[in-house]
Amino acid sequence: MTLPPPEPPSPRERVTVLNLLPVALTVIAVLLLLSFFGQVAPSLLAITLAVILATALNPLARSFEKRMPRAAAAGLTVLLVLAALIGLGFLAFPPIVSQVAALSDNIPTNSTQLLGLARKWLSTHPQFTAVITDDMLTRMAGQLNTLTGKLTGMLPSLAVLIVGGIATALVTLVMVVFALGNPVPLVNGVLGAVPPRHRVRATHALAQILKQLGAWGRATMLIMLVTGTITSLGFWALGVNNWLVFGILAALGELIPTLGPIAATIPPVLFTLADDPQKALFVLIFVVAFQQFESDVLAPFLIGGAGELHPLSTTIGILLFGGVFGLTGAFLTVPFLIVIKALYQHFYLTEAPDIPDAVAMALISGKVEEQLDREKEAQAQAEKELQEVRDAELTRQAEQGQLNLEAVLEDPAPETNSQPKPPQG
User: Fold this and answer.
1) Are 55 and 210 within 8 A, CB to CB?
2) What is the pTM of this model?
3) Which residues cross the membrane (predicted)?
């Protein structure tokens, strides 16, 4: 009797990682892009501002183009905008300077003055002495001295930053004139960089980007104007000192969506709180009421479908882009999201089915969860009944001596109507 030859050992299964090199290169490329954008953030801000302003002013330039060449229409558009800004500056500059001077006079220049003002304020409001102790004020004064020293050392850098900001503004103005005066080569260059098979999608995405960027830019300027005007008038009616400066601060806060208006409300409330806590409460109520009016009425009316972005997406974008690029990234959040959304819609969601709102509402209201629970209970009940039938059948087979242990152990869930295998022997 010859034994059969032994079977050759089966090869070991190996896990093969596919596309490891492309994934690694993609990660490295993303990190390099983040580092590059972090280094060129001011230049990126200038370019993006130029594109936004050019797309926002394009409708006005198109209306002038009907009567003059495109280059002349672009120059006239920019000149009109500059004239309006300069005229507004001449009207607002004297009171702004006087209020800034008054505001700087009211700010304590050293810890001794701050400590004296704080103790004077506590003497007129003794109900806060249990919370704010003299030791706490002394420690805060020491921290203020340290902070003042650091800020004083930053003054040269601040001067360089201001000069750089002015230069960036001039360069941005020149780019706006160039982009408005002859935009055709720029658009053709962008589309020409896309492979021909994707050029139609790229055209649709670019059209959506330009439309939404322009609408967002015009809406932002309008909201800044309305916010600054209403806030200044409200502060003036409440008797807030330096009401015009705080109104301009509220207008500038609109440049950073969601978080900017909240941050702009802190200075007027704090300065008013140091003078009159009751008035500070009225200021806070006015600011909160206006922000609700802005978010519920003003912003939807002015912006409409400009960006079509969810507020949560905008807030997350501000945290992410602001964390990577700083204040510049926070300001550029909406333009970045507009570009990302357009590319996502036209290059990824082209064949994806639309999900009805009823599905989302069913998920939010818990209907889907209830349905899944009912199905799970029904399945568990069916399995329980099947197990009871199976156990009864196996018990019967065991009592009759017909239980096939091999079949039961190899197949723990046989069909209930299957016949037991005859015993082998």
Assistant:
1) yes
2) 0.59
3) 17-37, 43-61, 73-93, 158-180, 219-238, 244-273, 315-340
